[in-house]
Amino acid sequence: MHLLSDALESLEKLLKWVHSIDYWLWADLIAPESRRLLKSVVRVQRQEEADIFYVPFFTTTSYFLLEKQECKALYREALKWVTDQPAWQRSEGRDHVIPVHHPWSFKSVRRFVKKAIWLLPDMDSTGNWYKPGQVYLEKDVILPYVPNVDHCDSKCVSETRSKRSILLFFRGRLKRNAGGKIRSKLVEELKSAEDIVIEEGSAGAQGKAAAQDGMRKSLFCLSPAGDTPSSARLFDAIVSGCIPVIISDELELPFEGILDYREIALFISSSDALQPGWLLKYLRRMDAKRIREMQSNLVKFSRHFLYSSPARPLGPEDLTWRMIAGKLLNIKLHIRRSQRVVRESRSICTCECRVGNTTRML
């Protein structure tokens, strides 16, 4: 087991980028039982005993590390292996979990696995990244990005509270595509205001240090949409004790069936945010007591967004398994229905009939 532990530690040092959720979940599942702290998922040895099948394929890692054609070939190989398994064929993949956390990962073969549970950064209902009918809340699970800054714990938040002299902070790419175009508009609106810092981000240790320093000096951190409705800046802000100001009209949030984000973040519509002077006036009028409450809540909430090995109770790995477990009844309904419905009736209606991006009550 020492070799396994050493290998995991080496991988952990390499996989710090924001889409490395496939590593963290797999690290929890394959860790020696004596090291595992979570009780929300139990590993079994036989297919017949499993409720859910996790597909241990690093879709995002392979996308980043391989040439395009090599990556596509590996995707096809993984697809064939998974879909040839009896477990997949029994359910058509409905009880399988596939990490698809980067908008481009597994893209060339997605149409063949669209009934599986996808682990996503968001839904992007604009259609820029996912085809209609591929992703929806009833089936899939939204996971947080891995924070790119160090955790500011309760002691850190207490020590920095009096030093947070910046009203609103943002450091990142100022020009994005699709829904992220609002970033450049916000820059024009906010760039000349006092006690506001809006700056172009940079990669590497220097960029991380600048972002971390700025967030720890700020009351509010701007979290606008990126190329997709979500942004890694949201989770950087949360673990930095900086109240997120979310401006993304299409955003779906991780674990929202468990967490109430209104306790830690402000949600502003794009139309309000772009009105001249509206956003800054709103933030300057915020009650000091409410700000302190939200800062205290950030300390409590940050544990839900810190990936770790071993995975901790109520951490993102634990909440992921809980969200998946909550889908079991609906998965079994669809599997059993598909197994008993006569073929001729499928042209009338199947269990795939639904309104996009809606959650249905059982």
Automatic annotation (TrEMBL):
GO MF annotations in UniProt: glycosyltransferase activity
Membrane topology annotation: Single-pass type II membrane protein
Keyword Acetylation in annotation: no
Annotated localization: Golgi apparatus membrane
Alphabetized InterPro entries for the sequence: Exostosin, Exostosin_GT47
Cellular compartments per GO CC: Golgi membrane
Every Exostosin GT47 domain range: 16-283
Coiled-coil annotated residue ranges, if any: none
Keyword set includes Cell wall biogenesis/degradation: no
Keywords recorded for this protein, A-Z: Glycosyltransferase, Golgi apparatus, Signal-anchor, Transferase, Transmembrane
TM spans (from-to): none
Family from the record: Belongs to the glycosyltransferase 47 family.
Entry protein name: Arabinosyltransferase ARAD1
Species this chain originates from: Panicum miliaceum (Proso millet)
